[in-house]
Amino acid sequence: MSNQAFSYQIRRSQRATQTRIIVTLGKVEVVAPLRVAEHKVHQFVQTKQQWIIQTLAKIEANSQQHKKLAPAVYGHGSEIPYQGASYKLAVRPSKLKRIKIEFSHEFIAHVPDTLMTKEHSEDIKEALIRWMKKASKGQVEQFVRQHAEKKQLFPQTIKIKTQKSRWGSCGIHNDININWLLIIAPPEVLEYVVVHELCHIKIRNHSAHFWALVAEHLPDYQSRRHWLKKHGSSLMMGL
């Protein structure tokens, strides 16, 4: 084992019928039946060495890719994700009674003087979430205006929601719900989700006809969909 590019643990199992390897982030476990000699187990690992190294690297790459986009602390100089980019946060004292968020080329948090002397990271975070929910509502409404009339796909209502496992939905009464976290993604990704849900007003399934309808609105929808599949885990971690 000293010559290996990785370390591993052997776990004996009464239920195991053959030796197998379990690779997780930074860990390699070899599960072996009770009757298999230890030197046979080591030989088996040797034969799988290249596969193990490749799998460890792949899992590590995925873990890096799916790291949370938002900062650990919301303070002056923090990087705030928004519309597929990252913007500096400036914290400024204010006479206001509540934190006010502004955005131009950076995010500005106007923090009441009474909060400046205390830990205010969580308060800024909550204010940013409120601001982004409002911003996402405006962006979604804009995309609806842009696409709805083409095929008469008019929603009954549009709601911005906090969802832990869905990007959007279309109810039986054509109520459109969109996850506000999509405002962190590039605008074209949010547009794709809006169009996706609008198309469900006409076609309730994911048949070839449905995707053809999506393509009529967004010929490049597949690249947008791919982006969401690749980065969706990071987005779902939120702010």
* CATH topology label of the largest domain: Zincin-like
Return the string of H and E elements. Answer: EEEHHEEEEHHEEEHHH
Number of helices: 7
- Which descriptor suits the 3D outline? flat
Number of strands: 10
Distance between the termini: 43 Å
Query: What is the multimeric organization of the chains shown?
Result: single chain
Number of domains: 3
What's the CATH H-level superfamily name of the largest domain? Answer: Metalloproteases ("zincins"), catalytic domain
Query: What percent of residues adopt helix (DSSP H or I)?
Result: 40-55%
The Rg value, from CA coordinates, equals 25 Å
Identify low-pLDDT runs. none
| Main beta-sheet annotation | 4 strands, mixed
Task: State the CATH class of the largest domain.
Answer: Alpha Beta
Query: What structural class is derived from the secondary structure elements?
Result: alpha/beta
> Spatial order of the strands in the main sheet?
4-5-7-6
Q: What is the CATH architecture term of the largest domain?
A: 2-Layer Sandwich
Which percent band covers the strand fraction?
15-25%
Mean pLDDT: 92
Keywords:
single chain; flat; 3 domains; 23% strand; 41% helix; 239 residues; four-stranded mixed β-sheet; alpha/beta; Zincin-like; 7 helices
Explain how this protein is built:
By secondary structure, this protein is α/β, with parallel strands linked by helices. The chain has 3 domains: 9-65, no CATH class; 79-131, no CATH class; 132-236, Zincin-like, CATH 3.30.2010. Helix content is 41%, strand content 23%. It has helices at 38-47, 49-65, 113-116, 121-147, 187-199, 208-217, 221-236, and strands spanning 9-13, 20-24, 27-33, 79-82, 85-94, 100-103, 107-112, 157-161, 168-170, 175-179. The strands form 3 sheets. The protein has a 4-stranded mixed sheet. A 3-stranded mixed sheet has the order 1-3-2. Strand 2 and strand 3 form a beta hairpin. Helix 4 packs across helix 5, helix 5 crosses helix 6 (208-217) and helix 5 (187-199) packs across helix 7. The longest helix is centred in the middle third of the chain and has 27 residues, at 121-147. It is flat. The relative contact order is 0.10. The mean pLDDT is 92.
